[in-house]
Request: fold
Amino acid sequence: MNRWPRKPNNMEEFGVSPIRDIFRLTDKILSEFIPDIVRYETAASFPAMELIDKENEMVLKVELPGIEEENIELNVKGDVLTIKGERKKEEVKEGENYLFSEISYGKFERSIRLPKNVDFDKAEAEFKNGILVIRIPKKEEEKTKKIPIKK
Reply:
């Protein structure tokens, strides 16, 4: 039995987590001093992705809500596909104040290693409704050649 009932925090009414806010604030402070730092959200889950292995292609779907197409960059080096981008913060107008914010802003980068049997030269990307879909065809499998032995 709790003799001292806990007084609710006004921010809890909005579903704000003080611990999450501490991590975000720490991340923001660090990113000011070290701009290219890999942020905890970037490394863990942002942007969210799913990779589908189909018969003739790999399909990578990437969630990028609130990000403009011109702020997205795709690069390939070897068998690693890297997605870079930036979610820009809207300017707050005079007289407007945030009660809380759970949206992450700034630059992000996430890389994924793909199987060696894909052909990046024929890859295509489409961005629609905040979802980036990258289709990467598989290379034709090399067939085993039989070498005849001369008698």
